[in-house]
Amino acid sequence: MLRRGSGGLPREVGVLAVVAFVVALGFGIVAPAIPLFARSFGVGTTAVGLAVSAFAFFRFVSAFGGGSLVERVGERLVLATGLVLVAVTTGLAGLATSFPTFLALRSAGGIGSAMFTVAALALLLRVSPPTHRGRAAATYQGGFILGGIAGPAAGGLLATLSPRLPFLLYAGFLLVAGAVALVLLRAPDVVGAGAREDPTEPPVEPLPLRTALRSRAYVAALVVNLGIGWVLFGVRNSLVPLYVTEELGRSAAWAGAGLLAGSAAQALALLRSGRLADTWGRRPSLVLGTATGTAALALLVLPPQTGVFLLSMATYGLAAALLASVPAALVGDVSPARGGRVVAVFQMAADLGAVAGPLVAGWLTDVASYQVAFAASTAVVAAGLVAALALPRAQPRT
Question: Which UniProt keywords are listed (predicted)?
Fold first, then answer.
């Protein structure tokens, strides 16, 4: 039997949230140093961008393989192996003496990141009871958000001391997170697709991906996660700072204030959103989240105003709190067994949005305007609203 922590959640959920915090904190520390360190090799701006995107690209293309590995050997081993792989490649990247070596190590780190992310989410959804799945996803995402808020401030300071130092520090954080995962994630982890918590129960096979794709709930989760990656991990970080300085005529500090407002609103609303997903229902929670996110982005299509911009960021943060928990809970409802590949494709949807969003929005800004780029992003989020409205009103019992 799984051990329960506070609020009826399995203890493993708290452990995964702590691991997520450590990983996000370390990533936030190293993020400001990546372009500076790449520049130190004397390369151009395009090469610097390649150093940033290589990690995300290899994370995307290797996620499905990581999901297959989860189904074969179990979440705990894949999770810890992924963390160690990112730790080793990050530490060696900080010691690299040439740009090709640095780029290759960053690419390999993306593979480890995919292994960790897919395994952690698959384990979270497997151990969480259906009545608490939204709260479990919200708790896990809360670790990422808090670490992501704390990391960049320290990272900028450390990068001014030495561009190599953040990489070595991040590697150390990841080794700690891997050790925590191996020691504290003690849930039964029988090798094979038929792994189960109670040996008296018949084995539960992972849901085939083809079957999952016939579920409207799973397709809705994919579409919404694509929008989250597009806006939250893509456009918000790439286009918003330029919009503030070039369109609003404000300093970069105002861009930071907007991003902080969004992150703070998301962090404050996250646990409440998880409870809402479990008690109010998946469909109404998803409709509310996607409708709020669509309205928040539509504000940026209006003529530029600083107040409207800050309102948009804060409102989207509230929407992101719901959209960080409800889609994951839907995936767990569809595939409650060890569904590595089902979880992997769900994660790939967000990664695809994070890669495509900045490219498409940046191109639209160049050929048209910021408002057109934000309108396209609003349409992507609105597609999630359409998918949410298409869900049956009475969700089947899991």
Answer: Membrane, Transmembrane, Transmembrane helix, Transport
